[in-house]
Amino acid sequence: MLKINNLHVKLEEEEKVILRGVDLEVEAGKVHAIMGPNGSGKSTLSYVLSGRDGYEVTDGSATLDGEELLEMEPEERAAAGLFLAFQYPVEIPGVGNMTFLRTALNAQRKARGEEEVSAADFLKLVREKAASLKIDADMMKRPVNVGFSGGEKKRNEILQMALLEPKMCVLDETDSGLDVDAMKLVADGVNALRNEGRSFLVITHYQRLLDHIKPDVVHIMANGRIVLTGGPELALEVEKNGYTDILAGVE
Ligand code: ADP
Ligand code: MG
Ligand code: MG
């Protein structure tokens, strides 16, 4: 599924190296978590996967089912089946959520050479997906994320993920200050969308989220690299002993 090989990334504008050789392989149907201290490069990894400006890949690769992601435009990445949810969803005043989601879905379809979905069919699809996730579809009538509570933004993100039916989902929940309810929403959404053909990379600073999303594999990132990989017990160890103890001796 997702294969990251020796990924090196620096800031475009400055001589600051952030990722120093990230190696990571997420198999189909698996949930991998990345944890790590603040500033270790976790968000940068997700930004680079999304194709955000401002970062320069100086070495390495990231492929999705063998296709090089790093050479694709952001919409091509979505068409290839990559989905990224970020810590701070953008607010778009004046654009209805329904229009926004349909535009996202149709951009994906267009990049795949598929037919666009009509407003009527989309409405049906949204109602279906929202109901299966127990999300109130009323939120669809409001402008994108404007005045949404943290929980509503999370619901919206999960709904978007359900609509786009990605095969690789990357969620960066590091610093979002999720309260317990919002955290459960994210976890329930991920768990509902988990299947043997879909993989998840869940980035989180705290172990709590992983109480609700049981990861198959846990990685610890430090100083721009994955320095430790283990099972769910690694997350519990972080919770108990903190990063300093765990990282002593591995770098
Ligand atoms: P994490 O998500 O693990 O907390 P980040 O990827 O956000 O780490 O950041 C890694 C390092 O890169 C930090 O030292 C951060 O300050 C720096 N960094 C990331 N993006 C930028 C940027 N656009 N400008 C300046 N520094 C950046
Ligand atoms: Mg940070
Ligand atoms: Mg971060």
Automatic annotation (TrEMBL):
Pfam families for this protein: ABC_tran (PF00005)
Annotated ranges, domain ABC transporter: 2-248
UniProt-listed SUPFAM superfamilies: P-loop containing nucleoside triphosphate hydrolases
InterPro entries: AAA+_ATPase (IPR003593), ABC_transporter-like_ATP-bd (IPR003439), ABC_transporter-like_CS (IPR017871), FeS-cluster_ATPase_SufC (IPR010230), P-loop_NTPase (IPR027417)
GO molecular function list: ATP binding; ATP hydrolysis activity
Keywords: ATP-binding, Nucleotide-binding
Protein name according to UniProt: Fe-S cluster assembly ATPase SufC
